[in-house]
Amino acid sequence: MTDAPLKIGITCYPTAGGSGIVATELGKELARRGHSVHFITHAVPVRLREFEERIAFHPVEAENYPLFNHQPYALNLAAKMSEVIERESLDIMHVHYALPHAVSAYLAREIVRPRSVKVVTTLHGTDITLVGLQPSFFSVTKFSIEQSDGVTAVSDWLRDQTRSIFNVTSPIEVIHNFVDPERFRPAADQRRRRCYAEPDELVFMHASNFRAVKNAHRVVEVFHAVAAQVGARLLMVGEGPDVAPARELARELGIAAFAFDHKRYSNRAAHEAEVIATLENHAPDFVILAGYMRLLSSDFVARFRHRITNIHPSLLPSFPGVDAQRQAVEYGVKMAGCTVHLVDESLDGGPIIAQRAVPVLDGDTPEELASRILGKEHGAYVEALRKLCGGYRVEGRRVIFD
Question: Minimal CA–CA distance to 79: which of 54, 65, 62?
């Protein structure tokens, strides 16, 4: 790599999967080393929680058109890549996952000719061993790898599989996945751990994007066998299509998980009574609301005073209630965001724990603003709960941390 700062575009899946996390951490480290990094994805990557110097995010907007049965995301992505390459004078497009990202990067490189931009493709696993093997994708996967200016793989095994499956003869450099031991190491402060388990309990954690290949159901089954012999807690972190099946399996195996459909109850009081009884039986330190679009009764709030948290997509006290993003756009504010707060009897009016700001751009639609705010919500909620786990007290409208 040249000593001069580079302008680098990065495209990845922005969810909690390993490829997106590696891509985001790589981009952040490149920015710290003086390079300009431009993330080009359909949503803010989950690890891009805070403002980072020399990092920009360019959302890919998928257009609906009546003739398309499915949104042509690969074309939308190629168009956005070519736009950013030209506007920001990118030197490199680094794409994680062959499909569709490497294909989109190839199209973008062709669109911007004669401008020169190098395409580097990083292979992570299932793009080769599952998706790429499907007959409808085989030839385009092979083509996208061969047309890349540089290809890396995260293991010797994946490099060898790629060469064997696709008969690729061009060089594939192995760069193993990495971890920062200064950040990810056992913590001396055990307060956060106590939020999840007793001191004598083991903690098992599964973090993924909950696709079928991640075998979340096997994790639950193995944990069930372990928990029969030793005290343990299972933490499953992430999002994806197999979250609900994993939760249902946990319930079938007797691992605590509960669902209360309010439609099955004769009235609100009956619904809340069962929820309260279940919560009190488990003596939670916190009751964490996320997308719980129902007002809690004063009795519910009183039972868990200053222990119920919620998140709202505005900088409270501005724009409480529904359609906060639309309210912000129509009012013409220049800054929006999200607020994590303790829940009281009012509507979105409890003491504030944490806030994240998001600029409102000229021409923003409520949907575009909502997407950018959502990218901040996960980090804000994690930060708020981390602070609460360290101890706090409430004085009037102020939450004061120990």
Answer: 62
Question: What percent of the chain is predicted at pLDDT more than 70?
Answer: 95
Please list the residues that pair with 11 across neighbouring strands: 95
* Tokens describing residue 3: 């000593």
| Separation of alpha carbons 235 and 202, rounded Å | 11
- What is the domain partition of the chain in residue ranges? 7-174, 186-257, 284-402
Strand, coil or helix: 262: helix
- Round to whole Å and give the CA distance between 242 and 175: 29
Q: Which residue has the tokens 């996390």?
A: 21
Pick the CATH number of 186-257 from 3.40.50.970, 3.30.160.20, 3.40.50.2000, 3.40.30.10: 3.40.50.2000
Enter the tokens of residue 79. 């168009």
- For residue 55, give the H/E element and its range: strand 55-59
Q: Are the C-beta atoms of residues 170 and 144 closer than 8 Å to each other? A: no
CA–chain centroid gap for 64, Å, is 24
Give the CATH number of domain 7-174.
Answer: 3.40.50.2000
The third-level CATH classification (topology) of the domain covering 284-402 is Rossmann fold (3.40.50)
**pTM above 0.85?**
no
Handedness of CA 342, 343, 345, 349 (dihedral sign): positive
Indicate whether 402 pLDDT > 50: yes
